[in-house]
Amino acid sequence: MELEGKIIRKLNVQTGNSARGTWAKQEFVLEYQDGNYPAQACLNVWGEDKVKDLEKYQVGDKVKVAFNINSREYNGRWYNDLRAWRIEPAGVSGGYSHGNNGYGSTSGSVPPAAPMPTADDMPADLGGSDEDLPF
């Protein structure tokens, strides 16, 4: 999924050690337009390389974020995780992304269509018969 908005807060980098080695995580809050009203979402990046990518952006920067949604249950409660995997300045195309319609937009819009033909656009002679059908 993709979301475009303004970074309004960056939380501190969290680090630790696990059985797989060291890890780094940083959360940030993105304000985006949801219809007529602003909304906020807390996203995160995992891994040193993604944390470094987030360092390029400051509070107030407008960005486009590609992320995955994951939910998990713990002790009878459900928790959502919005994990960003690409962050770029708003208005920049990131090449191919899921849902790209090939017309420079991922918003789900349809390509421009030709106008609907009228009766004047139809051929005058349909086989020399007085019938409207060509068969």
Order of helices and strands: EEEEHEE
Which CATH-level-2 architecture of the domain at 2-93? Beta Barrel
Q: Structural class of the helices, strands and pairings?
A: mainly beta
Write the CATH fold name of the domain at 2-93. OB fold (Dihydrolipoamide Acetyltransferase, E2P)
Tally of DSSP β-strands:
6
Separation of the first and last Cα atoms:
49 Å
Oligomer: single chain
How much of the residues is beta strand, in percent? over 45%
> Biggest sheet, in brief?
6 strands, antiparallel
- Arithmetic mean pLDDT: 81
List the helices and strands and how they pair.
Blueprint: E1 2-10, E2 14-18, E3 21-34, E4 37-46, H1 48-55, E5 62-74, E6 77-89
Antiparallel strand pairs: 1-3, 1-5, 2-3, 3-4, 5-6
Could you characterize the architecture of this molecule?
- This protein has 135 residues and is mainly β.
- It has a domain at 2-93: OB fold (Dihydrolipoamide Acetyltransferase, E2P) (Beta Barrel), CATH 2.40.50.140.
- It is built from 1 helix and 6 strands; from the N terminus they run ββββαββ.
- It has one helix spanning 48-55, and strands at 2-10, 14-18, 21-34, 37-46, 62-74, 77-89.
- β5 (62-74) and β6 form a beta hairpin.
- 10% of the residues are buried.
- The model is unreliable at 95-111 (pLDDT under 50).
